[in-house]
## 1
Amino acid sequence: MSTTTEPSATVTTSLRVPADLLARYDRLGALTERPRSFHLLKALQAYIDDQLWLAETMASAVAEDEPTAVTNAEDTADLISRGLIRPEDLEGPDPTSDEEYEAAQRGPLRWR
């Protein structure tokens, strides 16, 4: 018995794109012999996957008793390497006491 997976329904949408980006996009399509839709879907999927991961990771950290769960060096380096945050997003005054550090960790999450 074989099972087949139905493809997801598709819808048409439009997007305004700067002319220089469209030229690069068309050049990529020509070089790879792929249609515009192929590259646009790949780019959109990658962007949405990254943004959902970031939003869900941050929401999970905020919901935990330990909001520092995503602030260790390895996770921060991963976020920066994926382009999801910038080093300057981490700038701020350094707490000078344990109490100030704890207060800073429990502060609200601010999106830029």
Note: Helices lie at 19-32, 36-63, 73-81, 98-105.
## 2
Amino acid sequence: MSMESWHERSKTVQIDGRALIGGMRRDAILGARFDCLSPIDGRKLAEVARCSDADVDAAVTSARAAFEDGRWAGLAPGERKRVLIRLADLMLVHQDELALLETLDMGKPIRYSRDVDVRLAQNCIRWYGEAIDKLYGEVAPSPQDSLALITREPVGVVAAIIPWNYPMLMAAWKIGPALAAGNSLVLKPSEKAPLTSLRLAELALEAGVPEGVFNVVPGYGDEAGRALGLHMDVDCIAFTGSTRVGKQILQMAGQSNLKRAWTELGGKSANIVCADCPDLDAAVAGAIGSIYFNQGESCNAPSRLFVEASIRDAFLDKALALVPRYAPGDPLDESTVMGAIVDATQMQTVLGYIEDGKAAGARLLAGGQAARIETGGLYIEPTLFDGVEATMRIAREEIFGPVLSVLSFTDLDEAVRQANSTPYGLAAAVWTADIAKAIRTSRRLRAGTVHVNQYDNDDITVPFGGYKQSGNGRDKSLHAFDKYTELKTTWIQV
């Protein structure tokens, strides 16, 4: 579709900002709303229900009733499977609409919203649908006069709180396994990008998910999010977002009913390029493409680049030649590869880190400025710092923007030590032609995912999550069922 066509369609797209509770669209009980603004040009997209305690309680009550009467949990696995696969099919039917909502709402390029986010999100739902009737229990090695069964049961009412950087995909990572396991769900999207979550819930109803099983309560974290965290009838809460808020979620779980709390949090991923890397051009393309993808608004973005000193100059020359390809453009133009920053608050945060890096003595080699100001939107140039020291804030704190910090090393052991020296442990990478070195380094890197001679390759079959303050639990793969099920032992005396 041409840029003109996407712009024309954006003028007529129908947006309903009301919550979805018990199978019905509803305004917030107190009538509060907030404006949903597009970072592309600052225009108002919709007024969205600002849910609070009363709305959350209504959603949880609806989810509990649906769970207890078995309208979803009581279905045969094959029935739930057919519904989730139907939902995945509907997501493909509506892929242009979902992609447009995602791009308008949070600013990512339309080419990625459609060809990456929608495709991966529907594949996630489909994969968990397919997995439903392929999960088996266990028979324990009990004495001859006994039979011990180990089975999985849904945990009950699941609350899911998702971030704004990949709203559709992060929702799917929660929706897929939670519903596949037979739970009821209350989803709270970020107030910065709530639109695709609301539409997905409508499509779920159309696919056959019973009313009350999948509820969506848009609103602010300190209102709707806090109400979910403290609710006494939520059995499990799954959160993806900042480490600061993740700590609050864990505290609220303890303050309330000791609900199971799973978190996928921040990152400051290290990308280590050794002098013997097998393909320097590939290493450069991987480093640059991964940090500027999604405007740098990725928890696993490789924002710390460690380059062995003997190849540093050659690496930087190649990197600087690639940076202009990521100049921000119109997100509704299919040739654009970097779009808008999600909102003004995040934009000021990123620009603040850039100023801090300059003040600390790092060398700004590219970018560092706001861009496309005349559009009324929120854009930042792809930014690259060299001469970064490990003690600088830009090398220690998560920026969540298109900012790359380059550090040099001569000793791999020291590079690994610095890579591990942050509170985070979400992802890392090492580039080397020496397989023994790759294995040894991978084992020493304290991260949930370690990439070797590539960055960010993965799929739904492998788990995603972090060490340390990057969170607990895992999204994706069959391991995600551990978050949304209880293990039951049934001991039968024969």
Note: The chain is about 40% helix and 20% strand.
## 3
Amino acid sequence: MTTYGHTATGTSIDDTLIDKIAAEAEGGYVGWQLRIGRPPLEAGQSRTRTFRIGQALDAALQARAEADHVSPSAVVRDALAKYLIPA
């Protein structure tokens, strides 16, 4: 069976998953509600921060995100939490 990649949570995207998703789409998404915007990370609204990083750090960030099957933002949030919030 061919694997085309992985979802953000690490699930393999293969023919079986594609067939399942296609069947759901063809049957309609009964009971689904459209949610606009991103869900909050914690209670209330989350803040957005923008910052610049060099190419080497960006490459390391991207590699870690791919290895962990998460977004680069998730890697940054985790790293900041470990650095700023005492255990």
Note: The radius of gyration is 18 Å.
